[in-house]
Amino acid sequence: MLAKRLENLHPYVPGEQPKDRVYIKLNANENPYPPSRKVTEAVTEAVASHPEKIGLYPDPDANELRSAIAQMLNESGGVLSNSSASIPFKITPDMIFCGNGSDEVLSFVFYTFFDSDRPIVLPEHTYSFYPVYCGYYDIPMDRVPLKSDWHLDTEKMLADANANDSCTIFANPNAPTGIALSRDEVAQMIRRAPKAKAFIVDEAYCDFAEESCIPLLAEFKNLVIVRTFSKSLSFAGQRLGFIIANPELIKAVFTVKNSFNHFPVDFLTQTAGIASCKDWAYYGENAGKVKAERESMTAFLRERGWFVIDSSTNFIFAKKDGLEGEKVYQTVKKAGILIRHFSTPGIEQFVRISIGTKEQMDALKEAMKDL
């Protein structure tokens, strides 16, 4: 009874969420801080004042939300934790597309820009949903190994993209390594990549870094930037992601969306998203706290002989000679703390640690001090 295409599906495996006890969750890159009070107030007011809207379809194009996102990006400079960030032009609502989390947005991106007749170029170790969508849409992959220092091998990626006239996608900062290419490095890549193919930069963790590639949209019409509310905007429990791109490319993604789900972003999510955008400074302050704890945890581990990759995200990727990643994960779990271990060949010795509050990180330090 099952379609043959099911044979090519290898579902994404999220961080575990066990129910046997209360854990400190540092395994899913969630934000440890609650949403702004303006969000809960806006949702409460919306339900109390307009309960009938729960029974009505929402704005299918999320126009007010798109305007709010554009305004947030213009005011913040595109990086919530960096007050000096700036965009040299005005982001307009027609440059924004919204969906149910960046995973759905990525699904639309894969369907819109990638074909089955040539491979897309992506790093070997990056966001693990990319290969899932390649299987879902029957898109071949060219997975380029990282360099020995865990950075993207941009030269090999460019050579392969040009050889196959292919699209390119990667997370920046990358996951699970946490390393970010500079905006200039990304610009150099796009200039040398196939001009008629989409160049996708997934900036899910950008608000914990120093700069965004948004300013490059003025020069490159084939650049598509994917962002999410789940990380810096404390929205993982709701679901909201968006794209920033040339208006013509946004129109193409709308065509795909309207052929799949005409009403992806519900009324309450749009309401909460708009309120989040209006209080972006609150989230920028929280991202700054995360960055401070990230540096503290990195120093703590390095003092104890761990190898920790410099991170521009809300997590760190670390290993210690003589310690199996699985053992580290199990030891910490017994202390009531969840971190992430990947059994993927090449990174199986590492653990990925999401950054929590100071109290949560102090508890983790206590659990790891003798490892």
Describe, in short, the structure shown:
The protein is an alpha/beta fold.
The number of distinct helices, counting runs of at least 4 residues, comes to: 11
> Which band does the percent of strand residues land in?
5-15%
Shape: globular
Oligomer: single chain
- Rounded to an integer in angstroms, the radius of gyration calculated over CA atoms is 20 Å
Secondary-structure-derived class: alpha/beta
Please state the average pLDDT score. 95
Q: Secondary-structure element sequence? A: EHHEHEHEHEHEEEHHHEEHEEEH
Order of strands side by side in the largest beta sheet?
2-8-7-6-5
Low-confidence stretches: none
Report on the biggest sheet.
5 strands, mixed
Helix content: 25-40%
Q: Span between N and C termini? A: 50 Å
Number of strands: 13
Structure description:
This protein is an alpha/beta fold. The chain is built from 11 helices and 13 strands. It has helices spanning 37-49, 63-76, 101-113, 129-137, 154-164, 183-192, 247-258, 267-278, 280-303, 325-334, 358-368, and strands at 24-25, 96-99, 120-123, 141-144, 168-171, 199-202, 223-228, 241-245, 307-308, 315-319, 337-338, 340-341, 351-354. The strands form 4 sheets. A 5-stranded mixed β-sheet has the order 2-8-7-6-5, with helices on both faces. A 4-stranded antiparallel β-sheet has the order 9-10-13-12, covered by helices on one side. Strand 9 and strand 10 form a beta hairpin. The chain is globular, with a radius of gyration of 20 Å.
Spell out the blueprint of helices and strands.
Layout: E1 24-25, H1 37-49, H2 63-76, E2 96-99, H3 101-113, E3 120-123, H4 129-137, E4 141-144, H5 154-164, E5 168-171, H6 183-192, E6 199-202, E7 223-228, E8 241-245, H7 247-258, H8 267-278, H9 280-303, E9 307-308, E10 315-319, H10 325-334, E11 337-338, E12 340-341, E13 351-354, H11 358-368
Parallel strand pairs: 1-11, 3-4, 5-6, 6-7
Antiparallel strand pairs: 2-8, 7-8, 9-10, 10-13, 12-13
